[in-house]
């Protein structure tokens, strides 16, 4: 993986997320160059400096977009506002829970993404799915070439620990499904994005409780084929997705972009400082995500986060993928998930190597080839097009 900050994996990971999710390399370099010295102090110190630099870059884009709008150049303005929303999201992602400006910058990032989508006329609309007396927010991307009244297969994309629907929609997944005749639904499930920050919904281990209402909603959608609903989990979604498919038989297939077979075991390894963390202030972050009152409470909740004894329930095609150099989640977990899919009629295991790229966690080093391979597999299972 390209490490902008040679001694700091966590800061470099956020930088790569920006570069592979719609960011501009010149803008990212301008924001990051003043941070090189601060990054050497470690993951947690200096994150406010990171915030100021990335917010400054986003604010400059907003000013440029205002100039575009004054000239009537709405497409140009929309692209700039979309990138500004991304940079605000990256700045927010790096902060500790309780950082005073965190909620405000998150809300501002949502506004910018929405403005950007509308002005740039993107194939993407925000939707709300009823859940637990409130709703789950999601982004719906329509399959290309749909005729009036035609129904398309769809892929439900599940976040990881710290991703959001906006980030994933700005990745290669924002277009690669639609081009293959598949619609996509990017969901902020409990513990992520709007569900956590605005609705106060923490993560839960029994993911079927929120997956079932999503399927209910999709089966009533006039553009969705109710028999061809697939699921894809990214990062910690490598736990959420298999669990959802195991207990929600209406999913026609499933796939993971990064296996996460035994996340409770990963936490024990991280306590011993084994492997890399995904975000700064890691232990406070996971307590927030899971609604834990303290570290002991979090570790008790994490004890449920494994797939042993679950995967034999899956009776639909399933794909397991993993980068061979994943520094967050060891490769062994991909083999464990694959081996336990004993009743899947078609199970596949793709290990991304240096030959095709995508060797790091969820292929954040190079998502293009890996993403296309995953999209092709899902299109083949759901009746999309790979030609």
TrEMBL record:
InterPro entries cross-referenced by the UniProt entry: AB_hydrolase_fold, FrsA_esterase, Peptidase_S9_cat
GO molecular-function terms, A-Z: hydrolase activity
Keywords: Hydrolase
Occurrences of domain Peptidase S9 prolyl oligopeptidase catalytic (ranges): 214-384
Stored Pfam families: Peptidase_S9
PANTHER family, sorted: CONIDIAL PIGMENT BIOSYNTHESIS PROTEIN AYG1 (AFU_ORTHOLOGUE AFUA_2G17550) (PTHR22946:SF12), DIENELACTONE HYDROLASE DOMAIN-CONTAINING PROTEIN-RELATED (PTHR22946)
Name of the featured protein: Alpha/beta hydrolase
Organism the protein comes from: Paraburkholderia caffeinilytica
Highest classification ranks of the organism: Bacteria, Pseudomonadati, Pseudomonadota, Betaproteobacteria, Burkholderiales
């Amino acid at each position: 993986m390209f490490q902008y900050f040679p001694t700091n994996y966590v800061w470099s990971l956020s930088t790569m997320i920006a570069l592979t999710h719609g960011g501009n390399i010149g803008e990212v370099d301008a924001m990051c160059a003043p941070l090189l010295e601060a990054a050497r102090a470690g993951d947690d110190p200096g994150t406010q400096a990171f915030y100021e630099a990335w917010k400054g870059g986003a604010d400059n884009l907003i000013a440029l977009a205002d100039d575009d709008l004054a000239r009537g150049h709405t497409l140009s303005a929309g692209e700039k506002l979309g990138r500004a929303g991304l940079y605000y999201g990256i700045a927010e992602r790096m902060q500790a829970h309780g950082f005073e400006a965190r909620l405000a910058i998150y809300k501002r990032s949502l506004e910018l993404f929405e403005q950007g989508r509308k002005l740039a006329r993107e194939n993407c609309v925000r939707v709300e799915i009823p859940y637990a007396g409130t709703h789950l927010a999601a982004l719906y991307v329509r399959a290309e070439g749909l005729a009036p009244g035609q129904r398309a297969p769809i892929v439900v994309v599940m976040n990881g620990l710290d991703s959001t629907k906006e980030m994933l929609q700005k990745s290669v997944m924002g277009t690669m499904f639609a081009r293959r005749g598949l619609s996509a639904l990017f969901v902020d499930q409990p513990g992520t994005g709007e569900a956590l920050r605005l609705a106060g919904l923490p993560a839960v281990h029994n993911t079927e409780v929120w997956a079932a209402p999503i399927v209910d909603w999709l089966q009533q959608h006039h553009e969705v084929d109710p028999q061809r609903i697939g699921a894809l989990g990214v990062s910690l979604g490598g736990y959420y997705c298999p669990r959802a498919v195991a207990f929600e038989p209406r999913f026609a297939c499933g796939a993971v972009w990064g296996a996460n077979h035994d996340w409770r075991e990963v936490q024990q390894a991280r306590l011993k400082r084994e492997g890399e963390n995904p975000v700064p202030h890691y232990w406070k972050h996971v307590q927030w995500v899971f609604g834990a009152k303290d570290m002991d409470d979090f570790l008790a909740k994490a004890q449920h986060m494994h797939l042993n004894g679950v995967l034999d329930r899956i009776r639909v095609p399933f794909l397991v993928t993993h980068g061979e150099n994943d520094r967050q989640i060891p490769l062994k977990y991909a083999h464990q998930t694959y081996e336990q899919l004993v009743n899947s009629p078609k199970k596949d295991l793709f290990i991304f190597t240096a030959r095709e790229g995508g060797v790091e966690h969820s292929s954040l080093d190079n998502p293009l080839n890996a993403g296309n391979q995953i999209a092709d597999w899902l299109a083949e299972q759901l009746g999309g097009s790979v030609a």
